[in-house]
Amino acid sequence: MTQDELKKAVGWAALDYVTPGTIVGVGTGSTAAHFIDALGSIKHQIDGAVSSSEASTLKLKSLGIPVYDLNEVDALAVYVDGADEINPQMQMIKGGGAALTREKIIAAVAEKFICIADISKQVDVLGGFPLPVEVIPMARSYVARELVKLGGLPEYRQQVVTDNGNIILDVHNLSIVNPAELERAINALPGVVTVGLFAARGADVALIGGPNGVTTITQ
Ligand SMILES: O=C(CO)[C@H](O)[C@H](O)COP(=O)(O)O
Predict the structure, then answer these.
(1) Residues 15 and 114 in one domain
(2) Does 21 show up as a binding residue in the annotation?
(3) Which residues of the chain have pLDDT under 50?
(4) Is the CB of 25 under 6 A from ligand 1?
(5) Whether residues 116 and 208 fall in one domain
(6) Structural domain harbouring 15
(7) For 15-30, how does the pLDDT look when each residue is reduced to its tens digit (9 = 90+)?
(8) Residue 161, CA distances (Å) to 39, 135, 136, 137 in order
(9) Which atom belonging to ligand 1 lies closest to the Cα atom of 30?
Protein backbone atom coordinates (compact mmCIF):
# COMPACT_ATOMS: atom_id res chain seq x y z
CA MET A 1 0.00 0.00 0.00
CA THR A 2 1.18 3.54 -0.67
CA GLN A 3 1.56 6.06 2.13
CA ASP A 4 -1.49 7.90 0.82
CA GLU A 5 -3.55 4.69 0.92
CA LEU A 6 -2.53 4.23 4.56
CA LYS A 7 -3.57 7.82 5.28
CA LYS A 8 -6.90 7.21 3.56
CA ALA A 9 -7.51 4.05 5.60
CA VAL A 10 -7.07 5.86 8.93
CA GLY A 11 -9.03 8.90 7.72
CA TRP A 12 -12.04 6.72 7.03
CA ALA A 13 -11.53 4.60 10.17
CA ALA A 14 -11.90 7.76 12.26
CA LEU A 15 -15.60 7.93 11.28
CA ASP A 16 -16.17 5.32 14.03
CA TYR A 17 -15.44 8.06 16.58
CA VAL A 18 -17.96 10.54 15.19
CA THR A 19 -21.25 10.68 17.04
CA PRO A 20 -24.29 11.57 14.90
CA GLY A 21 -25.85 14.94 15.72
CA THR A 22 -22.61 16.55 16.92
CA ILE A 23 -20.15 19.15 15.68
CA VAL A 24 -16.78 17.60 14.82
CA GLY A 25 -13.31 19.12 15.31
CA VAL A 26 -11.32 18.80 12.09
CA GLY A 27 -7.55 18.98 11.61
CA THR A 28 -5.30 19.92 8.72
CA GLY A 29 -3.06 18.07 6.28
CA SER A 30 -3.25 15.24 3.79
CA THR A 31 -4.46 12.66 6.34
CA ALA A 32 -7.08 15.04 7.72
CA ALA A 33 -8.16 15.69 4.12
CA HIS A 34 -9.11 12.01 3.82
CA PHE A 35 -11.07 12.32 7.06
CA ILE A 36 -12.92 15.32 5.60
CA ASP A 37 -13.83 13.22 2.53
CA ALA A 38 -15.13 10.55 4.90
CA LEU A 39 -17.09 13.14 6.87
CA GLY A 40 -18.65 14.29 3.59
CA SER A 41 -20.17 10.83 3.21
CA ILE A 42 -22.12 11.26 6.48
CA LYS A 43 -22.69 15.02 6.27
CA HIS A 44 -26.44 14.69 6.82
CA GLN A 45 -25.83 12.86 10.10
CA ILE A 46 -23.62 15.53 11.71
CA ASP A 47 -24.36 19.12 12.72
CA GLY A 48 -21.15 20.48 11.19
CA ALA A 49 -17.48 21.06 11.95
CA VAL A 50 -14.99 23.45 13.48
CA SER A 51 -11.87 23.71 11.41
CA SER A 52 -8.19 24.22 12.24
CA SER A 53 -7.21 26.01 9.01
CA GLU A 54 -8.48 27.99 6.07
CA ALA A 55 -7.52 25.04 3.82
CA SER A 56 -9.66 22.57 5.78
CA THR A 57 -12.50 25.10 5.97
CA LEU A 58 -12.49 25.41 2.17
CA LYS A 59 -12.58 21.64 1.74
CA LEU A 60 -15.33 21.18 4.33
CA LYS A 61 -17.47 23.85 2.69
CA SER A 62 -16.86 22.44 -0.79
CA LEU A 63 -18.42 19.20 0.45
CA GLY A 64 -21.41 21.03 1.92
CA ILE A 65 -20.41 20.61 5.57
CA PRO A 66 -21.30 23.67 7.68
CA VAL A 67 -18.25 25.20 9.42
CA TYR A 68 -18.73 26.95 12.76
CA ASP A 69 -16.54 29.48 14.51
CA LEU A 70 -15.12 27.84 17.63
CA ASN A 71 -16.59 30.68 19.70
CA GLU A 72 -20.08 29.50 18.74
CA VAL A 73 -19.44 26.02 20.11
CA ASP A 74 -19.53 25.12 23.82
CA ALA A 75 -18.16 21.59 23.60
CA LEU A 76 -16.63 19.18 21.13
CA ALA A 77 -16.70 15.43 21.60
CA VAL A 78 -13.84 14.71 19.22
CA TYR A 79 -11.02 16.38 17.35
CA VAL A 80 -9.55 14.32 14.50
CA ASP A 81 -6.15 15.27 13.10
CA GLY A 82 -2.90 13.92 11.73
CA ALA A 83 0.60 14.24 13.19
CA ASP A 84 4.16 14.56 11.99
CA GLU A 85 5.39 12.26 14.77
CA ILE A 86 3.74 10.36 17.61
CA ASN A 87 5.54 8.59 20.46
CA PRO A 88 4.39 5.65 22.66
CA GLN A 89 3.11 8.16 25.27
CA MET A 90 0.77 9.55 22.57
CA GLN A 91 2.64 12.86 22.52
CA MET A 92 3.05 14.42 19.10
CA ILE A 93 4.90 16.86 16.91
CA LYS A 94 2.46 18.75 14.70
CA GLY A 95 2.58 21.80 12.47
CA GLY A 96 4.11 20.48 9.28
CA GLY A 97 1.15 22.18 7.62
CA ALA A 98 1.67 25.37 9.67
CA ALA A 99 -1.73 25.05 11.38
CA LEU A 100 -0.38 24.15 14.84
CA THR A 101 -1.91 27.01 16.84
CA ARG A 102 -5.50 26.51 15.71
CA GLU A 103 -4.95 22.77 16.00
CA LYS A 104 -3.83 23.13 19.60
CA ILE A 105 -6.76 25.37 20.49
CA ILE A 106 -9.35 22.96 19.09
CA ALA A 107 -7.56 20.00 20.69
CA ALA A 108 -7.81 21.79 24.04
CA VAL A 109 -11.57 22.15 23.67
CA ALA A 110 -12.23 18.60 22.51
CA GLU A 111 -12.94 15.80 24.94
CA LYS A 112 -11.03 13.31 22.78
CA PHE A 113 -8.13 13.79 20.37
CA ILE A 114 -8.14 11.10 17.70
CA CYS A 115 -4.76 11.03 15.97
CA ILE A 116 -4.78 9.53 12.47
CA ALA A 117 -1.39 8.68 11.00
CA ASP A 118 0.42 6.26 8.77
CA ILE A 119 3.01 4.05 10.40
CA SER A 120 5.94 6.24 9.30
CA LYS A 121 4.86 8.78 11.95
CA GLN A 122 5.45 6.40 14.88
CA VAL A 123 8.72 7.11 16.72
CA ASP A 124 10.25 6.23 20.08
CA VAL A 125 11.66 9.71 20.70
CA LEU A 126 10.21 12.89 19.19
CA GLY A 127 12.48 15.30 17.33
CA GLY A 128 13.50 13.61 14.09
CA PHE A 129 10.89 15.79 12.39
CA PRO A 130 11.89 19.48 12.77
CA LEU A 131 9.76 21.00 15.53
CA PRO A 132 7.54 23.83 14.19
CA VAL A 133 7.17 26.97 16.30
CA GLU A 134 4.72 29.74 15.35
CA VAL A 135 6.26 33.12 16.12
CA ILE A 136 5.12 36.77 15.94
CA PRO A 137 7.18 38.18 13.01
CA MET A 138 9.04 40.87 15.02
CA ALA A 139 10.28 38.23 17.48
CA ARG A 140 11.79 35.94 14.85
CA SER A 141 15.49 36.60 15.54
CA TYR A 142 15.11 36.75 19.32
CA VAL A 143 13.17 33.50 19.48
CA ALA A 144 15.65 31.84 17.11
CA ARG A 145 18.54 32.78 19.44
CA GLU A 146 16.64 31.39 22.44
CA LEU A 147 15.91 28.15 20.58
CA VAL A 148 19.64 27.76 19.91
CA LYS A 149 20.20 28.06 23.70
CA LEU A 150 17.75 25.16 24.12
CA GLY A 151 19.94 23.04 21.83
CA GLY A 152 18.02 23.42 18.58
CA LEU A 153 18.91 24.66 15.12
CA PRO A 154 16.00 26.87 14.03
CA GLU A 155 15.29 27.37 10.36
CA TYR A 156 12.93 30.09 9.07
CA ARG A 157 10.22 28.48 6.91
CA GLN A 158 10.52 30.72 3.84
CA GLN A 159 7.40 32.02 2.06
CA VAL A 160 5.06 30.72 4.77
CA VAL A 161 2.65 32.96 6.65
CA THR A 162 0.28 31.19 9.02
CA ASP A 163 -3.50 31.70 8.96
CA ASN A 164 -2.87 33.96 11.98
CA GLY A 165 -0.36 36.18 10.10
CA ASN A 166 2.75 34.81 11.80
CA ILE A 167 5.92 32.97 10.73
CA ILE A 168 7.20 29.45 11.43
CA LEU A 169 10.60 28.45 12.75
CA ASP A 170 11.36 24.73 12.23
CA VAL A 171 13.76 23.53 14.91
CA HIS A 172 16.21 20.81 13.86
CA ASN A 173 18.64 18.79 15.95
CA LEU A 174 16.37 18.11 18.92
CA SER A 175 16.10 14.78 20.70
CA ILE A 176 13.08 15.47 22.84
CA VAL A 177 13.40 13.29 25.93
CA ASN A 178 11.09 15.43 28.05
CA PRO A 179 8.38 16.73 25.70
CA ALA A 180 6.20 18.35 28.40
CA GLU A 181 9.13 20.34 29.79
CA LEU A 182 10.25 21.51 26.33
CA GLU A 183 6.67 22.44 25.44
CA ARG A 184 6.48 24.65 28.55
CA ALA A 185 9.92 26.19 27.96
CA ILE A 186 9.28 27.14 24.33
CA ASN A 187 5.75 28.38 24.97
CA ALA A 188 7.15 30.68 27.69
CA LEU A 189 9.39 32.59 25.26
CA PRO A 190 8.00 36.07 24.50
CA GLY A 191 6.96 36.16 20.86
CA VAL A 192 6.15 32.47 20.63
CA VAL A 193 2.50 31.89 19.79
CA THR A 194 2.63 28.10 20.04
CA VAL A 195 5.11 25.27 19.78
CA GLY A 196 4.01 22.25 17.77
CA LEU A 197 4.66 19.88 20.65
CA PHE A 198 1.45 18.29 21.85
CA ALA A 199 2.74 16.81 25.10
CA ALA A 200 0.63 18.12 27.98
CA ARG A 201 -2.39 17.36 25.82
CA GLY A 202 -1.53 14.36 23.68
CA ALA A 203 -3.81 12.06 21.75
CA ASP A 204 -6.42 9.89 23.48
CA VAL A 205 -6.66 7.45 20.60
CA ALA A 206 -4.20 6.84 17.76
CA LEU A 207 -5.30 5.10 14.57
CA ILE A 208 -2.13 3.93 12.87
CA GLY A 209 -2.23 2.72 9.29
CA GLY A 210 0.22 -0.01 8.39
CA PRO A 211 0.56 -2.87 5.91
CA ASN A 212 -1.72 -5.07 8.04
CA GLY A 213 -4.48 -2.51 8.37
CA VAL A 214 -5.44 0.04 10.99
CA THR A 215 -4.19 -0.45 14.55
CA THR A 216 -6.00 1.33 17.37
CA ILE A 217 -3.91 2.53 20.33
CA THR A 218 -5.58 4.00 23.39
CA GLN A 219 -4.16 5.76 26.44
O1 LIG B 1 0.07 19.17 11.98
C2 LIG B 1 -0.34 19.14 10.85
C3 LIG B 1 -0.66 20.36 10.07
O4 LIG B 1 -0.25 21.53 10.74
C5 LIG B 1 -0.56 17.82 10.17
O6 LIG B 1 -1.43 17.08 10.96
C7 LIG B 1 0.74 17.10 10.04
O8 LIG B 1 1.65 17.96 9.35
C9 LIG B 1 0.59 15.80 9.28
O10 LIG B 1 0.32 16.07 7.94
P11 LIG B 1 -0.04 14.92 6.90
O12 LIG B 1 -1.33 14.32 7.33
O13 LIG B 1 -0.16 15.67 5.59
O14 LIG B 1 1.09 13.93 6.88
Answers:
(1) yes
(2) no
(3) none
(4) no
(5) yes
(6) 3-122+200-218
(7) 999 999 999 999 999 9
(8) 28, 10, 10, 9
(9) 13
